[in-house]
């Protein structure tokens, strides 16, 4: 019986990169286990792989037994890459080779949390819609400027499935189980885990700007959103005020009143926090990161960075 048929067993593989998040992995495999229990038969079979061909250590220090990377599809229906930690740890040519081979053989390829970054490095996301955990999005954009991840919990684009990680795999698996077994059965699986609010694919990964900044003023929110979109080429106060349809003085008052920080201070902090992510996750030099976050020189960038965080960019990278 073909694995595509409703009564067939779908073998689902997970490539566990060292430092993967245990929550992301559990959120992906537990709905498959519950589906088997509720169906009273085996619908899904989970197989774990690792680059080393042995147990893979999660970010919490818990090892998960794993097999050597598959050299062919060998009955695999889908394979997901689970990755966490830093992109510098994910440069694994054997994993890239295995993923390309599986893709050529028609296996559905997916990525969870930082996994989509690995798929991008393997050349498997060109001309594809995809998402990645928001923490890894800046590093992915810098490493692969021709790719643009969507701000979604999960994205299904044909035989590519990507997910933001955390608890989002619960939503993704609900969708995949629903597609195969029907929405009623998928609902029973989600109820098994008290997963009463199933997020849609386009649902955001993070809290809204209003929740993150604790403000609800529409002008202020539109300006902050514009700030996040113009980190590399920041707009001046007058240009931002013109964008928001208010005077520069009124814009300053809004920031001071609602955020207890000025326009320039808020903008600079946002850019420096973005820079800190790049220092931790991208191979870019300090000078490249300075220019990528809108600073005219690495010296100015380093001084501002040290003023805010109390240590230099190079110290962040070393740590």
Structural summary, described in words:
The chain is of the alpha/beta class. It has 2 domains: 10-192, Rossmann fold, CATH 3.40.50; 209-318, Homeodomain-like (Arc Repressor Mutant, subunit A). It has helices spanning 22-39, 93-104, 115-121, 137-143, 168-181, 183-192, 209-213, 218-229, 237-244, 248-259, 263-281, 286-292, 298-309, 313-318, and strands at residues 10-16, 44-49, 56-57, 63-64, 76-83, 108-113, 154-157, 160-163. The protein has a 6-stranded mixed β-sheet with strand order 2-1-5-6-8-7, with helices on both faces. A two-stranded antiparallel sheet has the order 3-4. Helix 1 packs parallel to helix 5 (168-181), helix 5 (168-181) packs antiparallel against helix 6 (183-192) and helix 8 (218-229) packs across helix 9.
CATH architecture of the largest domain: 3-Layer(aba) Sandwich
Instruction: Choose one word for the global shape.
Output: globular
For the largest sheet, list the strands in their spatial order.
Answer: 2-1-5-6-8-7
Query: Which class of the largest domain in CATH terms?
Result: Alpha Beta
* Strand segment count: 8
Mean pLDDT across every amino acid position: 91
Class by alpha and beta content: alpha/beta
Task: Please compute the radius of gyration using only Cα atoms.
Answer: 22 Å
In CATH, the topology of the largest domain is named Rossmann fold
- CATH superfamily membership of the largest domain: Class I glutamine amidotransferase (GATase) domain
């Amino acid at each position: 019986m073909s694995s595509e048929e409703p009564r067939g067993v779908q073998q689902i593989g997970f490539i566990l990169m060292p430092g993967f998040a245990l929550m992301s992995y559990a959120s992906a495999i537990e709905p498959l286990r519950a589906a088997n229990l509720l169906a009273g038969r085996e619908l899904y079979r989970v197989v774990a792989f690792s680059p080393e061909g042995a147990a893979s250590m999660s970010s919490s220090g818990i090892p998960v037994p794993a097999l050597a990377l598959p050299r062919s599809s060998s009955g695999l229906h889908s394979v997901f890459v689970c990755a966490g930690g830093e992109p510098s740890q994910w440069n694994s040519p054997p994993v890239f080779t295995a993923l390309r081979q599986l893709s050529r053989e028609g296996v559905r390829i997916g990525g969870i949390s930082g996994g989509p970054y690995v798929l991008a490095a393997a050349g498997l996301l060109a001309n594809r819609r995809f998402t990645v955990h928001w923490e890894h999005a800046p590093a992915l954009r810098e490493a692969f400027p021709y790719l643009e991840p969507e701000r979604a919990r999960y994205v299904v684009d044909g035989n590519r499935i990507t997910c933001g990680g955390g608890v989002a795999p619960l939503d993704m698996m609900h969708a995949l189980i629903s597609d195969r077994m029907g929405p009623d059965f998928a609902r029973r699986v989600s109820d098994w885990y008290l997963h009463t609010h199933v997020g849609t694919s386009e649902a955001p990964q993070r809290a809204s700007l209003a929740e993150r900044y604790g403000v609800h003023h529409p002008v202020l929110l539109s300006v902050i959103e514009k700030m996040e979109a113009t980190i590399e080429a920041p707009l001046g106060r007058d240009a931002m005020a013109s964008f928001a349809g208010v005077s520069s003085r009124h814009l300053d008052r809004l920031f001071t009143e609602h955020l207890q920080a000025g326009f320039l201070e808020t903008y600079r902090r946002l850019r420096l926090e973005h820079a800190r992510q790049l220092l931790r996750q991208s191979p870019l030099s300090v000078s490249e990161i300075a220019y990528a976050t809108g600073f005219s020189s690495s010296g100015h960038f380093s001084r501002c960075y040290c003023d805010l965080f109390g240590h230099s960019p190079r110290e962040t990278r070393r740590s």
